[in-house]
Amino acid sequence: MTLLPDTMKAAVLGEPGQIRVRELPVPRPGPEDVLVRVRRASLCGTDVKIRSRDFFADGGPPPGGFVPGHEYAGVVAAVGETVEEFQIGDRVVTEAHRGCMRCVTCLRGGYTDCLNYGRRERGHRAQGMTVNGGFAEYALNHVSTLCRLPEGLSFDAGVVLTTAGTVMHAFGVLADVLAGARVAVLGPGPIGLLAVQVARELGAEFVALAGTRESRLALGRAFGSDLVVNVHDPDAVAQVRTLSGGHGADIVLECSGAAPAVDDALRMVRRGGRVVLVGFFDEPVTADLNHAVMNGITIHTVRGEGAGSLARAVSLAGRGRLATEDLVTHHFPLEAVAEAFDTYAERRGDALKVMLDISDHVPG
User: Residue 31's closest CA among 79, 90, 88, 97?
Assistant: First the structure.
Protein backbone atom coordinates (compact mmCIF):
# COMPACT_ATOMS: atom_id res chain seq x y z
CA MET A 1 0.00 0.00 0.00
CA THR A 2 1.46 3.35 -1.04
CA LEU A 3 1.71 5.90 1.73
CA LEU A 4 0.53 9.26 0.48
CA PRO A 5 2.17 12.50 1.57
CA ASP A 6 0.10 15.13 3.33
CA THR A 7 1.04 17.94 0.95
CA MET A 8 1.99 18.41 -2.68
CA LYS A 9 3.30 21.06 -5.01
CA ALA A 10 0.63 22.61 -7.23
CA ALA A 11 0.35 25.52 -9.64
CA VAL A 12 -2.49 27.78 -8.52
CA LEU A 13 -4.22 30.80 -10.03
CA GLY A 14 -3.38 34.20 -8.62
CA GLU A 15 -4.71 37.53 -9.79
CA PRO A 16 -5.61 37.73 -13.50
CA GLY A 17 -2.59 36.73 -15.59
CA GLN A 18 -0.71 35.19 -12.66
CA ILE A 19 0.02 31.59 -11.74
CA ARG A 20 2.45 30.32 -9.11
CA VAL A 21 3.50 27.15 -7.30
CA ARG A 22 2.55 26.55 -3.68
CA GLU A 23 1.90 23.70 -1.26
CA LEU A 24 -1.61 22.24 -1.06
CA PRO A 25 -3.05 19.23 0.75
CA VAL A 26 -3.01 15.99 -1.22
CA PRO A 27 -6.66 15.12 -1.98
CA ARG A 28 -8.06 11.82 -0.75
CA PRO A 29 -10.28 9.74 -3.03
CA GLY A 30 -13.95 9.24 -2.37
CA PRO A 31 -15.65 5.90 -3.06
CA GLU A 32 -15.68 6.33 -6.88
CA ASP A 33 -12.47 8.34 -7.23
CA VAL A 34 -8.95 7.61 -8.41
CA LEU A 35 -5.96 9.63 -7.22
CA VAL A 36 -3.46 10.12 -10.05
CA ARG A 37 0.19 10.88 -9.47
CA VAL A 38 0.65 13.27 -12.37
CA ARG A 39 3.68 12.70 -14.58
CA ARG A 40 2.99 15.04 -17.50
CA ALA A 41 0.52 17.86 -18.10
CA SER A 42 0.22 20.12 -21.12
CA LEU A 43 -1.06 23.61 -21.80
CA CYS A 44 -3.71 24.62 -24.29
CA GLY A 45 -5.49 27.82 -25.26
CA THR A 46 -8.18 27.27 -22.65
CA ASP A 47 -5.55 27.30 -19.92
CA VAL A 48 -4.35 30.71 -21.09
CA LYS A 49 -7.92 31.99 -20.80
CA ILE A 50 -8.20 30.43 -17.35
CA ARG A 51 -4.98 32.16 -16.23
CA SER A 52 -6.33 35.52 -17.45
CA ARG A 53 -9.72 34.63 -15.91
CA ASP A 54 -11.44 35.39 -19.22
CA PHE A 55 -12.74 31.81 -19.04
CA PHE A 56 -14.88 32.44 -15.96
CA ALA A 57 -18.14 34.32 -16.34
CA ASP A 58 -18.05 35.32 -12.65
CA GLY A 59 -14.34 36.09 -12.33
CA GLY A 60 -13.49 32.60 -11.15
CA PRO A 61 -12.33 31.19 -7.83
CA PRO A 62 -10.44 33.35 -5.30
CA PRO A 63 -6.66 33.56 -5.79
CA GLY A 64 -4.32 31.08 -4.19
CA GLY A 65 -6.15 27.75 -4.24
CA PHE A 66 -7.47 26.76 -7.67
CA VAL A 67 -5.37 24.32 -9.75
CA PRO A 68 -5.82 24.48 -13.56
CA GLY A 69 -4.82 21.74 -15.99
CA HIS A 70 -7.15 19.47 -17.96
CA GLU A 71 -4.66 17.55 -20.13
CA TYR A 72 -2.53 15.19 -18.06
CA ALA A 73 -1.36 11.61 -17.61
CA GLY A 74 0.20 9.73 -14.76
CA VAL A 75 0.11 6.71 -12.48
CA VAL A 76 -2.66 5.56 -10.16
CA ALA A 77 -1.60 6.36 -6.60
CA ALA A 78 -4.79 5.43 -4.69
CA VAL A 79 -8.32 4.27 -5.42
CA GLY A 80 -11.68 4.66 -3.74
CA GLU A 81 -13.36 1.74 -1.99
CA THR A 82 -15.68 0.86 -4.91
CA VAL A 83 -13.09 1.18 -7.67
CA GLU A 84 -12.25 -2.14 -9.33
CA GLU A 85 -11.34 -0.92 -12.81
CA PHE A 86 -7.85 0.34 -11.89
CA GLN A 87 -5.08 -0.65 -9.52
CA ILE A 88 -2.28 1.28 -7.90
CA GLY A 89 0.57 1.56 -10.40
CA ASP A 90 -1.58 1.59 -13.54
CA ARG A 91 -0.50 4.14 -16.14
CA VAL A 92 -3.46 6.28 -17.13
CA VAL A 93 -4.50 9.23 -19.27
CA THR A 94 -7.37 11.40 -18.12
CA GLU A 95 -10.46 12.95 -19.63
CA ALA A 96 -11.44 16.44 -18.52
CA HIS A 97 -15.23 16.13 -18.40
CA ARG A 98 -17.41 14.17 -16.04
CA GLY A 99 -21.09 14.96 -16.49
CA CYS A 100 -23.70 14.75 -13.76
CA MET A 101 -24.95 11.56 -15.47
CA ARG A 102 -28.51 12.43 -14.44
CA CYS A 103 -29.61 15.15 -16.88
CA VAL A 104 -31.12 14.35 -20.26
CA THR A 105 -27.99 15.51 -22.09
CA CYS A 106 -25.66 13.25 -20.11
CA LEU A 107 -28.00 10.29 -20.45
CA ARG A 108 -27.77 10.70 -24.22
CA GLY A 109 -23.96 10.69 -24.05
CA GLY A 110 -23.44 14.46 -24.32
CA TYR A 111 -21.73 14.92 -20.97
CA THR A 112 -19.51 17.75 -22.21
CA ASP A 113 -22.75 19.73 -22.52
CA CYS A 114 -24.08 18.67 -19.11
CA LEU A 115 -27.10 20.70 -18.00
CA ASN A 116 -25.64 20.79 -14.50
CA TYR A 117 -22.29 22.19 -15.64
CA GLY A 118 -20.27 23.46 -12.68
CA ARG A 119 -22.55 21.96 -10.02
CA ARG A 120 -20.32 19.62 -8.06
CA GLU A 121 -23.18 18.77 -5.71
CA ARG A 122 -25.01 17.32 -8.73
CA GLY A 123 -22.00 15.24 -9.78
CA HIS A 124 -20.53 17.43 -12.53
CA ARG A 125 -16.77 17.99 -12.74
CA ALA A 126 -14.53 19.57 -15.36
CA GLN A 127 -10.92 19.00 -14.37
CA GLY A 128 -8.96 22.24 -14.16
CA MET A 129 -12.03 24.26 -15.08
CA THR A 130 -14.63 23.74 -12.35
CA VAL A 131 -12.60 21.52 -10.01
CA ASN A 132 -8.86 21.27 -9.38
CA GLY A 133 -6.92 19.80 -12.27
CA GLY A 134 -3.59 18.34 -13.21
CA PHE A 135 -1.01 21.11 -12.75
CA ALA A 136 -0.08 19.43 -9.48
CA GLU A 137 1.74 16.39 -8.20
CA TYR A 138 -1.60 14.67 -7.54
CA ALA A 139 -5.02 15.04 -9.15
CA LEU A 140 -8.36 13.51 -8.21
CA ASN A 141 -10.46 11.98 -10.98
CA HIS A 142 -13.74 10.13 -11.13
CA VAL A 143 -13.05 6.56 -12.22
CA SER A 144 -15.08 7.06 -15.41
CA THR A 145 -12.66 9.72 -16.69
CA LEU A 146 -9.59 7.48 -16.94
CA CYS A 147 -8.19 5.31 -19.73
CA ARG A 148 -5.33 2.90 -19.29
CA LEU A 149 -2.26 4.00 -21.25
CA PRO A 150 -1.00 1.18 -23.50
CA GLU A 151 2.52 -0.12 -23.09
CA GLY A 152 4.84 1.55 -25.56
CA LEU A 153 3.14 4.93 -25.30
CA SER A 154 4.97 7.56 -23.28
CA PHE A 155 3.33 9.98 -20.89
CA ASP A 156 3.98 12.74 -23.43
CA ALA A 157 2.05 10.76 -26.02
CA GLY A 158 -0.71 10.05 -23.53
CA VAL A 159 -1.27 13.69 -22.72
CA VAL A 160 -1.54 14.62 -26.39
CA LEU A 161 -4.21 11.95 -26.75
CA THR A 162 -6.63 14.18 -24.88
CA THR A 163 -6.35 16.56 -27.84
CA ALA A 164 -6.74 13.64 -30.24
CA GLY A 165 -9.92 12.78 -28.34
CA THR A 166 -11.34 16.17 -29.30
CA VAL A 167 -10.66 15.34 -32.94
CA MET A 168 -12.35 11.95 -32.59
CA HIS A 169 -15.34 13.72 -31.05
CA ALA A 170 -15.45 16.19 -33.95
CA PHE A 171 -15.60 13.41 -36.54
CA GLY A 172 -17.94 11.40 -34.34
CA VAL A 173 -20.73 14.00 -34.38
CA LEU A 174 -21.01 13.49 -38.14
CA ALA A 175 -22.42 10.02 -37.50
CA ASP A 176 -21.07 8.84 -40.83
CA VAL A 177 -18.21 6.76 -42.17
CA LEU A 178 -15.28 8.96 -43.08
CA ALA A 179 -13.88 6.55 -45.66
CA GLY A 180 -13.87 8.15 -49.10
CA ALA A 181 -14.66 11.66 -47.84
CA ARG A 182 -12.82 14.80 -48.85
CA VAL A 183 -11.79 16.71 -45.73
CA ALA A 184 -10.39 20.19 -45.16
CA VAL A 185 -8.87 21.31 -41.86
CA LEU A 186 -8.43 24.95 -40.88
CA GLY A 187 -5.74 25.68 -38.30
CA PRO A 188 -2.46 23.72 -38.10
CA GLY A 189 -2.22 23.78 -34.31
CA PRO A 190 -2.19 20.56 -32.28
CA ILE A 191 -5.89 19.89 -32.93
CA GLY A 192 -5.63 20.55 -36.66
CA LEU A 193 -2.46 18.51 -37.10
CA LEU A 194 -4.06 15.61 -35.26
CA ALA A 195 -7.19 16.04 -37.37
CA VAL A 196 -5.09 15.48 -40.51
CA GLN A 197 -3.74 12.25 -39.04
CA VAL A 198 -7.09 10.97 -37.80
CA ALA A 199 -8.81 11.77 -41.10
CA ARG A 200 -6.16 9.75 -42.90
CA GLU A 201 -6.47 6.82 -40.51
CA LEU A 202 -10.27 6.81 -40.81
CA GLY A 203 -10.03 6.53 -44.59
CA ALA A 204 -10.47 10.05 -45.97
CA GLU A 205 -9.80 10.15 -49.71
CA PHE A 206 -8.36 13.67 -49.67
CA VAL A 207 -7.14 15.92 -46.84
CA ALA A 208 -6.33 19.62 -47.11
CA LEU A 209 -4.79 21.75 -44.38
CA ALA A 210 -5.00 25.55 -44.29
CA GLY A 211 -3.17 27.93 -41.99
CA THR A 212 -0.59 30.69 -41.77
CA ARG A 213 2.57 29.25 -40.21
CA GLU A 214 4.71 27.56 -42.84
CA SER A 215 6.52 25.35 -40.32
CA ARG A 216 3.21 23.91 -39.14
CA LEU A 217 1.90 23.48 -42.65
CA ALA A 218 5.07 21.51 -43.38
CA LEU A 219 4.22 19.23 -40.44
CA GLY A 220 0.77 18.76 -41.90
CA ARG A 221 2.30 17.68 -45.18
CA ALA A 222 4.50 15.19 -43.32
CA PHE A 223 1.42 13.85 -41.53
CA GLY A 224 -0.29 13.06 -44.83
CA SER A 225 -2.10 16.17 -46.00
CA ASP A 226 -2.58 16.12 -49.79
CA LEU A 227 -2.74 19.90 -49.97
CA VAL A 228 -1.46 22.64 -47.70
CA VAL A 229 -2.46 26.25 -48.33
CA ASN A 230 -1.71 29.54 -46.64
CA VAL A 231 -5.02 31.24 -45.84
CA HIS A 232 -3.46 34.59 -46.72
CA ASP A 233 -3.26 33.47 -50.35
CA PRO A 234 -6.16 35.06 -52.23
CA ASP A 235 -6.98 31.77 -53.94
CA ALA A 236 -6.75 29.56 -50.82
CA VAL A 237 -10.45 28.68 -50.84
CA ALA A 238 -10.41 28.08 -54.60
CA GLN A 239 -7.44 25.72 -54.25
CA VAL A 240 -9.28 23.58 -51.71
CA ARG A 241 -12.47 23.53 -53.77
CA THR A 242 -10.63 22.69 -56.98
CA LEU A 243 -8.50 19.91 -55.55
CA SER A 244 -11.29 18.35 -53.51
CA GLY A 245 -13.34 17.29 -56.49
CA GLY A 246 -14.23 20.70 -57.90
CA HIS A 247 -17.29 21.16 -55.70
CA GLY A 248 -15.56 21.62 -52.36
CA ALA A 249 -14.80 19.42 -49.36
CA ASP A 250 -17.42 17.09 -47.93
CA ILE A 251 -16.33 17.97 -44.39
CA VAL A 252 -14.49 20.99 -43.01
CA LEU A 253 -13.10 21.12 -39.48
CA GLU A 254 -12.47 24.64 -38.18
CA CYS A 255 -9.75 24.18 -35.55
CA SER A 256 -8.08 27.60 -35.48
CA GLY A 257 -10.54 29.65 -33.43
CA ALA A 258 -9.88 32.58 -35.77
CA ALA A 259 -13.05 34.54 -36.55
CA PRO A 260 -12.45 34.86 -40.35
CA ALA A 261 -11.96 31.10 -40.60
CA VAL A 262 -15.69 30.43 -40.23
CA ASP A 263 -16.43 32.11 -43.56
CA ASP A 264 -13.47 30.27 -45.10
CA ALA A 265 -14.92 26.99 -43.86
CA LEU A 266 -18.36 27.79 -45.29
CA ARG A 267 -16.82 28.50 -48.68
CA MET A 268 -14.51 25.49 -48.72
CA VAL A 269 -17.29 23.00 -48.09
CA ARG A 270 -19.52 21.70 -50.89
CA ARG A 271 -23.24 22.21 -51.15
CA GLY A 272 -24.91 19.91 -48.66
CA GLY A 273 -21.60 19.49 -46.84
CA ARG A 274 -20.82 19.77 -43.15
CA VAL A 275 -18.70 22.12 -41.08
CA VAL A 276 -17.59 21.26 -37.55
CA LEU A 277 -16.50 24.14 -35.31
CA VAL A 278 -13.82 22.78 -32.98
CA GLY A 279 -11.74 25.82 -31.99
CA PHE A 280 -12.77 28.31 -29.31
CA PHE A 281 -13.14 31.90 -30.45
CA ASP A 282 -11.85 34.91 -28.57
CA GLU A 283 -14.63 37.17 -29.81
CA PRO A 284 -18.12 37.01 -31.33
CA VAL A 285 -17.99 35.84 -34.94
CA THR A 286 -19.70 37.40 -37.91
CA ALA A 287 -20.21 34.93 -40.75
CA ASP A 288 -22.31 34.67 -43.90
CA LEU A 289 -24.94 32.28 -42.60
CA ASN A 290 -27.11 33.06 -45.60
CA HIS A 291 -24.49 31.24 -47.68
CA ALA A 292 -24.89 28.24 -45.38
CA VAL A 293 -28.69 28.33 -45.63
CA MET A 294 -28.75 28.75 -49.39
CA ASN A 295 -26.32 25.87 -49.87
CA GLY A 296 -27.72 23.41 -47.34
CA ILE A 297 -24.57 23.43 -45.23
CA THR A 298 -24.89 21.85 -41.79
CA ILE A 299 -22.85 23.38 -38.94
CA HIS A 300 -21.88 21.26 -35.94
CA THR A 301 -20.04 22.21 -32.77
CA VAL A 302 -18.08 20.11 -30.28
CA ARG A 303 -16.50 20.77 -26.93
CA GLY A 304 -13.61 18.68 -25.72
CA GLU A 305 -13.17 14.94 -25.84
CA GLY A 306 -16.78 13.89 -25.31
CA ALA A 307 -18.80 10.78 -26.10
CA GLY A 308 -16.03 8.39 -25.07
CA SER A 309 -13.75 9.70 -27.80
CA LEU A 310 -10.61 9.61 -25.65
CA ALA A 311 -10.81 5.82 -25.47
CA ARG A 312 -11.01 5.64 -29.27
CA ALA A 313 -7.97 7.90 -29.60
CA VAL A 314 -6.05 5.72 -27.13
CA SER A 315 -6.95 2.64 -29.15
CA LEU A 316 -5.74 4.23 -32.38
CA ALA A 317 -2.48 5.41 -30.83
CA GLY A 318 -1.92 2.07 -29.13
CA ARG A 319 -1.66 0.51 -32.60
CA GLY A 320 0.97 3.04 -33.61
CA ARG A 321 -1.35 5.00 -35.90
CA LEU A 322 -0.88 8.52 -34.47
CA ALA A 323 2.29 10.61 -34.22
CA THR A 324 1.50 12.39 -30.97
CA GLU A 325 4.98 12.92 -29.52
CA ASP A 326 5.99 14.81 -32.67
CA LEU A 327 3.76 17.68 -31.50
CA VAL A 328 5.61 18.17 -28.20
CA THR A 329 8.02 21.07 -28.57
CA HIS A 330 8.83 22.21 -25.03
CA HIS A 331 9.29 20.80 -21.52
CA PHE A 332 9.32 22.74 -18.25
CA PRO A 333 9.42 21.70 -14.60
CA LEU A 334 6.34 22.54 -12.56
CA GLU A 335 8.28 25.29 -10.78
CA ALA A 336 8.64 27.08 -14.14
CA VAL A 337 4.91 27.02 -14.87
CA ALA A 338 4.74 30.80 -15.44
CA GLU A 339 7.49 30.58 -18.07
CA ALA A 340 5.72 27.62 -19.67
CA PHE A 341 2.53 29.69 -19.98
CA ASP A 342 4.39 32.61 -21.53
CA THR A 343 6.18 30.30 -23.96
CA TYR A 344 2.90 28.81 -25.09
CA ALA A 345 0.91 32.05 -25.21
CA GLU A 346 3.62 33.93 -27.11
CA ARG A 347 4.45 30.96 -29.39
CA ARG A 348 8.12 31.20 -28.44
CA GLY A 349 10.20 28.78 -30.47
CA ASP A 350 7.09 27.94 -32.52
CA ALA A 351 5.61 26.22 -29.47
CA LEU A 352 2.97 23.60 -30.18
CA LYS A 353 2.51 21.33 -27.17
CA VAL A 354 4.19 22.66 -24.04
CA MET A 355 4.63 20.05 -21.30
CA LEU A 356 5.02 20.34 -17.56
CA ASP A 357 7.25 17.56 -16.24
CA ILE A 358 5.62 17.17 -12.88
CA SER A 359 7.01 13.96 -11.48
CA ASP A 360 9.51 11.51 -12.92
CA HIS A 361 9.59 9.43 -9.78
CA VAL A 362 6.56 7.45 -8.74
CA PRO A 363 6.88 5.92 -5.28
CA GLY A 364 6.18 2.23 -5.07
Answer: 79
- Domain 174-301 homologous superfamily, CATH: NAD(P)-binding Rossmann-like Domain (3.40.50.720)
Residue 168 near residue 107, CB atoms below 8 Å: no
Task: Please state, as a whole number, how many other Cβ atoms lie within 10 Å of the Cβ of residue 222.
Answer: 12
Backbone φ and ψ for 9, nearest 5 degrees, come out as -85, 140
What pTM, to 2 d.p., does this model score? 0.94
**Distance, CA of 66 to chain centre:** 20
Which DSSP symbol is given to 352?
Answer: S
Q: How far apart are CA 69 and CA 135, in angstroms?
A: 5
DSSP state of 348: G
Q: Taking a C-beta distance cutoff of 8 angstroms, is the pair 181, 250 a contact?
A: yes
Q: pLDDT at position 349, please?
A: 95
In angstroms, the CA 204 to CA 183 distance is: 7
Beta partners for residue 75, in sequence order:
37, 91
**Is 17 in contact with 54 (CB distance < 8 Å)?**
no
Residues of the chain with pLDDT under 50: 1, 361-364
Where along the chain do its domains lie? 7-164+306-357, 174-301
The chain-wide mean pLDDT, for the chain, equals 95
CATH value of 7-164+306-357 in 3.90.180.10, 3.30.420.40, 1.10.150.530, 2.40.400.10: 3.90.180.10
DSSP state letter for 237: H
